[in-house]
Every structure is written in C-alpha cells, then in structure tokens.
Amino acid sequence: MDGSFTIGRIFGIPLKLHISWFFILVLITSTLAMGYFPDQFPEWTTTAYWIVGLVTSILFFASVVIHELGHSLVALRDGVPVQSITLFIFGGVAQIGREPDTAGSEFRIAIAGPITSLALAAFFLIFGRLAGFRSEIAGSAIYLGQINIILAVFNMLPGFPLDGGRVLRAILWKIGGNFRKATHWATGTGQAVAFLFIGFGVWLMFSGNFINGLWMAFIGWFLSNASQHSYRQVVMRDMLGGVTARQLMVEQCPVVTPNIPLDELVDRHVLGDGHRCFFIADNDHMQGLLTLSKIKTVDRTKWKNVTTEDVMVPLDQVLSISPDEDAWSLLRIMDENDVNQVPVMENNQLVGMITRDRLLHYIRTRSELGF
C-alpha cells in the first residue's frame, strides 16, 4: 500500500487513500453518468447524471469503508489491532496487526464485512423505494443497494484472502486444529478462484468485451498475488514462532565519539570494518544512534564538515525492544518504522542489536532446512 496517505480517523483507525483510488473514482462516476443512469432514467438532465453519478460513487466507497469497519470493530473487540483502512483501485482493505488467535475469532472478523454490506443493501433499497422509483435520490439509493449485495456476494467467494476464503480457513482451522494447513488449503482455493477470474476475463476479451475482460483478468491476477503473499506471511510467522530477540541479537554497534566527521567515519568504520550502525557517546554518556541510512541523507560533498552528532538520532527517539520480544513482532516493527536495526534494551542497558539482515538470514536458513 505504498502511495497511500491518511485523510482522517474512524474510531481511532487511520483512513487512507491510495493514489489508484482516484482512477477508480473517475471510472465509476463516468460509467454511471454516461451509461447506467441514462439507460435507467432517460428523463434526467445531463447535469443530474453527473451530480448523481459523483455522489453515488462517493457513497459507494463510503459503503466499502463501512464494510471494512465491520471487520475492524469485531477485530478490535477480539483484541486484534487494526492498523488502517485503505481505499484503493479494487475497493478497500482493513490492515490488521496480526492474525486472530482462534478460529472463532477469524470467523467472526471475516463474516462481519459481508453482513455489514447486506445490512447496507437493505437500508438503501428500502430508502430508495420510499423515495420514489424515478427520482434522483431513489436511483442512487437503489443502485447502492444492488452494489452492496454484489459486494457481499463477491467477498463471500471461497477465495483467500477474500472474506469467504477467510471463513473457509476458519472452518478448516476449527476442524483440523492446524492454522498453517488451513491457510494452505484456503490459499489453494483462492488460487483456483483467481484463475477462474483470469480465464473468464480472457474469454470476455476474445468475445469482444475487451474492457470488462481485462478488468476481470486484472482482479484475478490481484487475488492470485494476494493469496500467495498471505500464505508466505503465515509460513514466515511459523518460522519465527517461539524465537525471541535474545536469540537473534548480535553484539552492539561500535561506540564512537560525537565529533567524528562523516567522511572519516565512513572510510574507517563503514568501508574499513563493515559496520552499518554506531552508538554515539561522550565520556560513557550515550547520546544517540547513527545508521547507514541516516548517513546517506547527507550530501556526500558535505561529509567532511558534518559530524556524527549532527545526524544521529537522539537516544530518547531511538526505537528499542526488549530481549523477550518475539521475532515476528520484531519484523513487523521494523517494517512499520522503516528501520534496518533495532537496539535491544534490558533494564535501561543496551544488551545487543537486531538487524534486518540477521532476521532474513535466519528465515532463509530455516527455509533451507525444510521448516
């Protein structure tokens, strides 16, 4: 979801827009204003088509947000953190911080979205009938009722990571008691559904309906990639299960003084010794942390006049973890904060350093051993 920006918060959950959302907003609005509404309501004016088309598009995406909010609120109730809700080209996605702890929780979180969409569908359809069949308000409401039904049905397809695929995983998990195997079977089903979408899309393209066929194939491609990525995450979580920072940490970064110019630091310690991070200390007083990524933010022509103290991250701003932090959480922390090294602190004392390279090496080694 790179390319997203936050536009607000709902129940404390950040609401984000991906840049691809603007494309789909224009596409849906123009499709409604130039196709659907003129066919259904030829008596409306051109201005009405575009105004109702835009309002309906915005309300459709509001429905998607409410759908994802249904997932999110149940997740929060079950103690599963929700990091954000993002609108993008394929609709919306709620990013949860971790997988549910039980099959029951997985089922409740997954089913909440489609149930929410069906409730919205009932509301819009009833409201549309009360507003009168031919009015602009009724036209928008009836369309929204129908599209929410389609949204619920589509999401209940048994293709992981769609809601239906997660419901299937919850059922398999409950029956077999093995989360990884349940994910494997649900992912396989998701791949089958994705290939059906791609095949149907190709058939439509060769049948003369190129745009809709391309769109269906694109959805299938997205579902295929999403299911594979989700399964890899589960496998990685299993590989890191039971492993703590204490087991993976290495010796701490070397300590250097705050007045060393960056060119000297790079020549002697980075290129010479191969170090990528440094603790800055003056007379045993720890002041901060300096990493290779911070050095790279400084223009190379200025390295001679810039010292380690000038670009270090002050100690009170340094992200740190405890030795008992589990490795899976640690990997998420690194990704969320875009850092490659994290100090390990115990009783306010530095006891080691975790690097992204160390984590990835551990994962690769376990994979090679067949875990």
List keywords for this structure.
CBS-domain, 10 strands, about 375 residues, elongated, four-stranded mixed sheet, about 15% strand, 3 domains, alpha+beta, 13 helices
Question: In words, what does this structure look like?
Answer:
The chain is of the alpha+beta class and 371 residues long. The protein folds into three domains: 4-156, no CATH class; 177-239; 245-368, CBS-domain (Roll), CATH 3.10.580.10. Helices cover 59% and strands 15% of the residues. It is built from 13 helices and ten strands. The protein has a four-stranded mixed sheet with strand order 1-2-3-4. A four-stranded mixed sheet has the order 5-6-7-8. β5, α9 and β6 form a beta-alpha-beta unit. α2 (46-77) runs antiparallel to α3 (103-131), α3 (103-131) packs antiparallel against α5 and α5 packs antiparallel against α6 (179-206). The radius of gyration is 26 Å and the shape is elongated.
The count of domains is 3
Q: How much of the sequence is in beta strands? A: 15-25%
Low-confidence stretches: none
Beta-strand segment tally = 10
Radius of gyration equals: 26 Å
Q: Which of globular, elongated, flat, extended, rod-shaped describes the shape?
A: elongated
- Which structural class is indicated by helix and strand composition? alpha+beta
Element-by-element helix/strand order: EEHHEEHHHHHHEHEEHHEHEEH
Strand order of the largest sheet: 1-2-3-4
Q: Roughly how much helix do the residues carry, as a percent range?
A: 55-70%
